[in-house]
Amino acid sequence: MEETSSLAKWRKGGIRTMPFIFSNEICEKLAVVGFAANMISYLTQQLHMPLTKAANTLTNFGGTASLTPLLGAFIADSFAGRFWTITVASIIYQIGMTSLTVSAILPQLRPPPCKGNEVCEEADAGQLAILYVSLLLTAIGSGGIRPCVVAFGADQFDETDPKQKTSTWKFFNWYYFCMGVSILVAVTVIVYIQDNIGWGWGFGIPTIAMFLSIITFIVGYPLYRNLDPAGSPFTRLVQVVVAAFRKRKLQKVSDPALLYQNEELDASISATGKLLHSKQFTFLDKAAIVTEEDNVKASSTPNLWRLSTVHRVEELKSLIRMGPIWAAGILLITAYAQQNTFSLQQARTMDRHIVRSFQIPPGSMSVFTIVSMLTTISIYDRVLVPIARRFTGLDRGISFLQRMGIGFIISLLATLVAGFVEIKRKHVASVHGLMDNPHSTIPITVCWLIPQYSLHGIAEAFMSIGHLEFFYDQAPESMRSTATALFWTSISAGNYISTLLVTVVHKFSAGPGGSNWLPDKNINRGKLEYFYWLITVLQALNLVYYLLCAKLYTFKPIQLRRKEDESQGGVELAGGV
After folding, report:
1. Which residues contact 211 (CB under 8 A, 6 or more apart)?
2. What's the protein's topology in the membrane (predicted)?
3. DSSP state of 364
4. Which DSSP letter does residue 151 get?
């Protein structure tokens, strides 16, 4: 009976679940990006928002949608599990998308069109309320999808099986590749429909795609390897802090072997392997010191608010160690966020014709980001990794910390280049007397923007995938949804920093006669290049900070339980060096 159960468990998961998970991700990203890629155009042209207000609305929405994954991760890791969290969150997302689609179809839910050169009427409070409620529902839905889909896909590969262990890092590459393909379709086909056919169809098609993604994901349920939730990870973290505080006056133990361990108690949160004692943050070790008051008995569970196991203490240490690396990713997102705001407005003023009868929609400019990202991922996986493996001996070629560092450098170059391109764009506008006419097309090809978009795509292929690998690999196994949520919270923080930066620069760069680095109506009269270079300087400082953090980072020590010998385990520093 036990052998049959083990065989059934072995048959679940693996590579055959990938079509269902990737199909879900492709449809979900088609929907998400189909909304987001051209939303700045919808807000400014259909709802008649000022540019800075529209830009901040989008970055605030992006920030909120990337913050809610903390709640989704808590629900998934604590009691619901990843499958049901993804399913329910997808339904909530579907409701929000449907609401936004309806508002784009019904004329009474939008302000009237502009007439000639008259001042356009901005959306009223009721129309904005529908927009904000729709965006809020999609943000809540994202909170359940984003932290769980990646972790759920990686869960399909058993780390205790040497044959499947090396498949995990390949999964992250191909996950991002499939996501990129769907984004590519969104920023070309969907954006073209929005600009040339109508916003009803432009929003409606992604809404239908989201519905299909829910059906596809549910159909694969019998094949999935579902890991049981291990209880609230946040409660365990707080218990360690409380226990360490209660015992703060105790002397540290001379031998870590004297600290409390209980494999039976930790069994549900250490199925793959147990965390070993590390030498950092030793003040937290006091939570695992056994005293007479703890009244520890072999057959009973101790009061976890007074006594924690080494494994639970190390869970908290792992998250603390990850914090500085997490923070380093924020500014890259701040730089990346400008593609859907100011870079898009640059594109709108330029000659976007590829041939005489066709011009690229501004929202489709990010196609160059996606193509460069997909190309980089393919070259990285098929060419760079085999070459690097010969020198490093690592299955993944280079460590995720090295991969992230390369991404930071390329992102810095992207914003530096963007500043010089903006100078060129305004010079051409000045030569042709178009500085005061923001609605006229400047006779400079939009291809000048390709380098900055492409560099951002290359940077994302290195940094974002490396960041995601880092969180999944270095997080305690019972907190992987939570750790993946940290990836999205860095995106959230990056968007909020972008909002703050835009607001501060807009306020303090204001001068006489309405001059401003970031003007509301006419970017030709602004100093957008200064804004790009400000971000470049911040990224340079951030790179120095990251290199210091990476050099000092200590990988989590874990003793893995291997399938070929359940009674023995090998000590392995997760993630390598």
Report:
1. 94
2. Multi-pass membrane protein
3. G
4. H
Q: Under DSSP, is residue 160 helix (H, G, I), strand (E, B) or coil?
A: coil
Question: CA-to-CA distance for 345 and 329, rounded, in angstroms?
Answer: 25
Distances (CA, A) of 513 to 28, 504, 516, 524, 525: 46, 19, 9, 14, 11
Residue whose token pair is 């178009």: 434
Measured distance CA(417)–CA(343) in Å, rounded: 12
Query: Any idea where the domains of the chain sit in the sequence?
Result: 2-228+329-561, 233-318
| b/e burial code for range 182-202 (CB count within 10 A of at least 16 → b) | bbbbbbbebbbbbbeeebbbb
Average pLDDT along the chain: 80
What is the spatial distance between Cα 120 and Cα 402, in angstroms, rounded to a whole number? Answer: 50
pTM: 0.72
Distance from C-alpha of 43 to C-alpha of 48, rounded to nearest angstrom: 6
Please report where in the chains the tokens 């460590």 appear, as a residue.
Answer: 399
Task: Identify how many contiguous H helices and E strands the chain contains and give both numbers.
Answer: 21, 7
Give 377's pLDDT tier (boundaries 50, 70, 90): confident
For Cα atoms 94, 336, 171, give the angle at the middle one, nearest 5 degrees: 65
Distance between CA atoms of residues 443 and 451, nearest Å:
19
Report which of 135, 209, 531 is spatially closest to residue 341, judged by C-alpha positions.
531
Q: Say yes or no: domain 2-228+329-561 is CATH 1.10.3720.10.
A: no
Tokens at residue 565, please?
């010998």
Q: What is the pLDDT of residue 560?
A: 62
SS (HEC) of 487-501:
HHHHHHHHHHHHHHH
- Return the sign of the alpha-carbon dihedral for residues 507, 511, 513, 519: negative
Q: State mean pLDDT over 328-343.
A: 83
Pull the structure tokens for residue 5: 């159960």
pLDDT in tens, 97-106: 898 888 888 8
Q: In the structure encoding, which two tokens stand for residue 150, read together?
A: 């990646």
Contacts of 425 (CB under 8 A, 6+ apart): 346, 349, 350, 442, 444, 448
**Are 499 and 63 spatial neighbours (Cβ–Cβ below 8 Å)?**
yes
Sorted by sequence, the CB contacts under 8 Å of residue 61 that are 6+ apart come out as 135, 139
Average pLDDT rounded to a whole number, residues 382-407: 84
Q: Which H, E and C letters describe 74-101, residue by residue? A: HHHHHHHCHHHHHHHHHHHHHHHHHHHH
Pairing of strands 557-561, 569-573: antiparallel
Packed helices 18-36 and 82-105: angle between N→C axes, nearest 10 degrees = 30
Question: CA–CA separation, 4 vs 36, rounded Å?
Answer: 48
Dist CA 366 CA 220 (whole Å):
32
489: left (phi over 0), alpha (psi -120 to 50) or beta: alpha
Nearest partner of 331 among 404, 266, 411, 262, judged by Cα? 411
Top-confidence residue, 409 or 150: 409
